[in-house]
Structure formats: C-alpha cells, structure tokens
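Review form for a predicted model. The reviewer records the input and the model, then writes brief findings.
Reviewer: anonymous (R2)
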Amino acid sequence: MMHDDPILVWGAGAIGGTIGAFLRRAGHDVTFVDLVEDHVAAIAGGGLTIRGPVAEFTTGGPAFTPAALSGRFRRVILAVKAHHTADAARALAPHLTEDGYVVSAQNGLNELVLADILGASRVIGAFVNFGADWHGPGDILYANRGAVVLGELDGARTPRILALHALLRDFDAVTVIADDIFAYLWGKIGYGALLKASALTNETIADFIDAPALRPLHLALIGEVMAVATAAGVRPIGFNGYDPDAFGRGDAAAIDASIAAIAAFNRATAKPRSGIWRDLAVRRRPTDAGAQLAPVLAMARRHGIATPVLDRLVALIGAVERGEREIGMELAENLLGIATARQGAEA
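Model under review:
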C-alpha cells in the first residue's frame, strides 16, 4: 500500500532514479519525470533496476516526460544536471502546489538558481555524495553509499524538514539534517574540483587523487575554492574523508591524511570514475562542470579573487566537450603547470 502525499522525482537518472527507486520500494507514492523517453517507458513498465554492491532490485512506477506530466505535487526531488536547473524549475513550477517545495539533490549551488525562480521559501537544500551511474534505460548502477544531508536554506528545523528527513531515511538510514546546508555544498565544491580534474584523464578518481606528483594541483584547486568560500563567509564542512579545514589551514599532515582517506573511499566503490568523466568519455555530451563552478567563479570576481586553476579546469573540460582536446594525462599536466606557476608567483 502506498503512503499518502505523492512525491515527484524530476530527473530520474543516476541520482534521482536511485532515490526514487528506494522510496518506491519502501511503499511511497513516487512519480518519475525524465527527458529520455526509453528510460521513462522502462520505469512505467516496472523495469527500473538498481544494481551493484549496495542493492539489487527492480521496481517501477508512473513515469512521464515533462510535456506529458499532469497534476500537482507538494514534494519534488530535483535531480537534473546543474546546467538544466533553470529550465527544469520553470517546467515544474506549474506542477508545484502553493505550499510545495523542491529539494535540490544536485551538485553545485543550484539552490540559488531555484530560489531566484521559485522563491527561497519553496526550496530545500540537499547534499548527496553517494555513487551512481545511469547505464541505459531502466539500468542504474548504485556503486556506493555516501553522505546524504538535508537543510532548510536558513537552517531552521521546520516540520517539513523533519518530515523530509524521515522520508529520506527510507533511502539512507544515516541521512542527517544540517543547520548550514551551504557549508556542505561548498565542501562538495572543493572535493568536486578534484573529481572534475580527474575527468581530464582516464585515471580512476582514487589513483588521480593519490598521485604525489599531482599534489600541487590538488592543493591549488581546493585552495581557490576555500578562498572564495571564506570571502563568502562560509566555512565548508567535510565528509567521507574530505577535510576542508586541513586544506584551509595548510596542515600538511592533516592534508596527507585527508588525501589518503578520500582515495580509500573512492577505491571502495564500484564507480571508479566521476560522472563528468562518464559524460565526456562514454556519453559524449556536455557536462555540467561549468554550471557547477559558475557561481563560485562569479563570487570570486566580485571579491577580487584570482582563480586561474579553476578557470583553466573549466576551459579544458569545455575543449574536450567541443572535440578540441582529447582526455589524457597531458591535460592534467597542463592544469598542473598553471597551479605550479601560481604557487611559484605567490612564494
């Protein structure tokens, strides 16, 4: 028997499909929306399969393309790529009840975009670090568990955040509520910069992060993110081995420990490479790397902070997307050169 108050999952790929499948299996009334018609058909036909070391099961439920959806929903989980956030927000707005809200289960600072379009009171922040990949219609690899955090944008402990927390514990029992969700989101931006840089190569995330020769690059990427976060008045929070405070204070021993912990976390997953790499190398489609970093770089400009390594990272990923460059260690070395030059200039 389904529980009351249906849930709309908008973007039923790796993240949304995994969360929605678990909620559906737990007895919740879940409707799925996705742009990929074959994927929608698979879900509607009861063929949404979650596989991998975490769980193996098949479920399904009502599923539609955005144009075919009807009805209104109070609870919406948004899990589209960052560069599709604005379009998705405008498309789902007519389907959101007056007292409804959207949970941003995405990478980046998309809560800011959603708040501009829908109003801040209709947005709940979320941070997710579990590993999942969409492999085809109805086929999702759930590679490893990772941090899942929720929070009202103003940090309040509202009845709706408590209810949402109870709901998402049916997906991951250790889901937590944050008093400052943006601190987690900024933490993911620093950690995510490493993953984006790894996508320029065919190395696994763990091998890329664990490479001593690339340490100056790791320090530069996270250092630039931390500088912007500090200017924005945010102290990023760590997770799954990532310790932003260690990088912020330049504690060499703590940085070594964090790098080792991040590498270990990523060696224990069935998803060896990032979603950005998969978009570039396998699906051959534009990534959301630029969209994820755009608000960070905009804040950097407002505060007069130079971000040459992040700027070059976005440019190199864009070049690969356009077919102008090929994935390989040469790109990481190019980025390393920028990082080393900056460090030399600052010495």
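Findings: The longest strand covers residues 96-104.
Further findings: Residues 181-198 form the longest helix (18 residues).
Recommendation: see findings above.
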